[in-house]
Design goal:
The protein is α/β, with parallel strands linked by helices. The protein has helices spanning 26-40, 44-49, 57-78, 91-99, 105-123, 139-146, 169-176, 199-209, 233-243, 250-258, 273-279, 292-298, 301-315, 326-342, 346-359, 364-375; strands at residues 3-8, 83-88, 129-135, 153-159, 162-168, 184-186, 220-221, 263-267, 286-287. It has a 5-stranded parallel beta sheet. A 4-stranded antiparallel beta sheet has the order 4-5-3-6. The chain is elongated.
Length: 380
């Protein structure tokens, strides 16, 4: 049995033009953006449409939550697979908790709004800060490089030689002179996340988490802190508090799920940052919005098509004054079986399903409408 693992990206992706890339998923994303807009009392779609960097943490976190949840929920509604594990990178951990039904979306919006307010307020006390990714150095080299700086800390452990460092910008700039230029990239964030600079807001945030109704996730959600599945609701809340100041142990989370037999990793992000990150570690992922190959290989594509064909025969009524030609219907099923078991040509399968509907008296347009409702989203 395959263990499907859904991976959610975090902060740092560029929000500009993001909705233009999500035409298929737009209805779902708009739904969650509208809900979030009412809660935060801001027109989030209008803010996104300006294609400008969203500076305040309160707004950017809520926007990414709504987009991430809406994007995933669209595909969840179309592909009936059982997710065994979910892992969210940094802010993605919050998205994974909503998608695993550990908390209602509306409550998570309020939580991230509060989290953003606390972070914005705390960083107003400090000089400018930020985060950088460093590729090509191992952990020991990174630690040796930052040991003489007061605020620099490892924020994310993304691979054997892939790290993110956070701290005050003036120290990041000094650190930059110590390493090869090509290894160094500033992230699209304006604050030092996963850093001890945020210790002052941890307790208030933890108390705020107690206001809401939490549930154990419907699948195994892997903690950024321990790289193990959450074992209790209290652990979830403690981990979200600690995540403010502690590093994201991403590569250890990935090692945990890939140590299980038959794990299939799926990047549930729009811009596939996690895909690129893990490919550099030699770990293969599928892209959720390019998932036709995933369906064919792992979700029983032949069975799905043939089961649907059986449902056409058994469940869709024959329209009036139509002669039901059972032999022709059987011939369609035979052809379907040979196609799905041989070369999985989706266009031929759809043509045959359309023929089956037409044999029962439906128009071509009616047939295509039924097929699109059922399997149209798989033609990706």
């Amino acid at each position: 049995m395959k263990n499907f693992v859904m991976l959610f990206p975090g902060q740092g992706i560029l929000i500009s033009d993001i909705l233009k890339e999500c035409q298929v998923e737009k209805v779902y994303i708009d739904k969650y953006l509208s809900i979030a807009s009412e809660i935060v009392e801001k027109d989030l779609k209008k803010i996104i449409s300006k294609n400008e960097k969203i500076e305040d943490m309160e707004t950017s976190q809520v926007v990414l939550l709504a987009i991430g949840v809406g994007f995933y929920k669209y595909y969840e509604s179309k592909m009936a697979i059982n997710i065994k594990y979910m892992i969210g990178h940094s802010l993605g951990e919050y998205i994974s908790l909503v998608c695993s039904n550990a908390i209602d979306f509306e409550d998570m919006v309020k939580i991230l709004k509060k989290r953003g307010e606390l972070i914005d307020s705390e960083f107003n006390k400090f000089p400018p800060s930020g985060m950088i990714s460093v590729n090509g150095m191992d952990e020991e080299e990174i630690l040796n490089g930052i040991k003489d700086f007061q605020t620099l800390e490892i924020a994310c452990k993304n691979g054997k030689r892939q790290f993110v460092i956070s701290g005050l910008k003036k120290e990041l700039e000094k650190f930059e002179t110590k390493i090869v230029k090509s290894q160094f990239t500033y992230l699209n964030v304006s604050m030092a996340m996963h850093n001890s600079l945020l210790k002052g807001v941890q307790d208030e945030f933890r108390k705020f988490l107690d206001r809401y109704q939490w549930r154990m996730p419907c699948c195994n959600v892997i903690s950024n802190k321990t790289a193990l599945p959450f074992a209790s609701i209290e652990e979830i809340k403690d981990s979200l508090r600690d995540q403010l100041c502690k590093p994201v142990n991403w590569i250890e989370c990935i090692k945990y799920v890939t140590s299980k037999n038959n794990s299939i990793l799926i990047d549930a992000g729009i811009r596939h940052i996690l895909y690129s990150m893990l490919e550099r570690e030699g770990i293969h992922l599928y892209k959720l919005n390019k998932s036709w190959n995933l369906v064919k290989e792992y979700i029983g594509y032949p069975e799905i098509i043939l089961n649907y064909a059986s449902r056409i025969i058994a469940c869709y009524p024959i329209k009036e004054e139509v002669f039901y030609n059972n032999n022709q219907m059987k011939e369609c099923v035979k052809k379907l079986e040979s196609i799905v078991l041989d070369n999985n040509k989706i266009s031929q399968c759809i043509d045959l399903l359309k023929q089956m509907f037409c044999l029962k008296g439906y128009t071509e347009n009616e047939a295509l409408a039924f097929i699109n409702d059922e399997i149209g989203s798989w033609k990706i």
